[in-house]
Amino acid sequence: MIHDAENAENSYYDDFLAQINLKRDYYQVIFCINGAYVPDTFYALLRNNNPHARFIYYAWDDIANLLKQSHLKYFNERYAYNISECKQYHATYVPMFVQSALSGHEAKDEYDVAYIASAHSDRKQIAYELNRRYGEKYRLFIYLYDPSNSGDQFCQETPLNYEQYLNVMRKSKAMLDVPYPEQEGPTTRSFDALLTKTKVITVNPHIKEYPIYSENIMIVDRDNIVIDDAFIKKTYIETGYQALTISEWLKKFNL
Hints:
By secondary structure, the chain is an alpha/beta fold. It folds into two domains: about 1-95, no CATH class; about 110-235, Rossmann fold (3-Layer(aba) Sandwich). About 30% of the residues lie in helices and about 20% in strands. The chain has helices spanning about 1-20, 40-50, 85, 125-135, 160-170, 190-195, 230-235, 245-250; strands at about 30-35, 55-60, 75-80, 90-95, 110-120, 140-145, 155, 170-175, 200, 215-220. A six-stranded parallel β-sheet has the order 7-6-5-8-9-10, sandwiched between helices. The chain has a four-stranded parallel β-sheet with strand order 1-2-3-4. Helix 4 (about 125-135) links the parallel strand 5 (about 110-120) and strand 6. Helix 5 crosses helix 6 (about 190-195).
C-alpha cells in the first residue's frame, strides 16, 4: 500500500516541476490545498528555493483520510475545515467557501426533500430507502451522478451544474446531506443551504460541533433515516451566520 502511494505521488512530480519557477525567492506565498498526491521532495524543493515565502496549508477534506500527512511539516501556517483535527495538526479552523452570492428562496416550494450527490458508497441504497419510505408522503427530488450507470432510476450520466443545483435547493424545504462514511467535517451543502435558506437533514453527527449548526439542521441515523414531519413543516429560521465567499475566505489567510 505504501509502495502504491509512492508511485501515485511520483507520477505527478515531473508535471508539477515543469509548471513552477525554480529561481530562488521567486514566490512570496506557497498555498496548498490537501496536496497529498504531491511527493514530499517537491515541497522540500519549494522550501529550499523560497526560504522567505509564506507556506500556507488548507485541508478541505479530513486530514486523517488523506493519502498521507507527512507533507504538513513543510507548512508553518495551517488551516482546516475539520474542527476536531485542528488541535492534532496545529491548525486554525476555517470553513469552506461557497461559489455564489446569496440567492434566496422561492416563495413556494416545489419539493419537500432534495437529495443531490455523486453515487458513491451507500448513497444509491439510501436513495431507494428514502423513496420507499417517503416517496408517497413527501415530494422528493433525487439526483445521483453516476456516469457508469445512467439506466438506474435515480442516476444520471451528467452532474447538475452549480446553478442548477442551487435552483433545486431554492425551491426545496430541506436538503438531504450524505457525506462519505468516514467524513467528519461538514460538506459544502450545509453552507450552500445558507445561500438558499434551505433546511438540512444530515447523517453527520459531528456537525453539532460547528458554528453553522442551528435549528435549521436535523441529524438522522445513516442506517435508518427517519425524517421528522415537524422539521419539514417548520419555517426556516434566520440565524445571522453566513457562508464565506471566495474573497472572504481568502481574507482568512490574509491574502
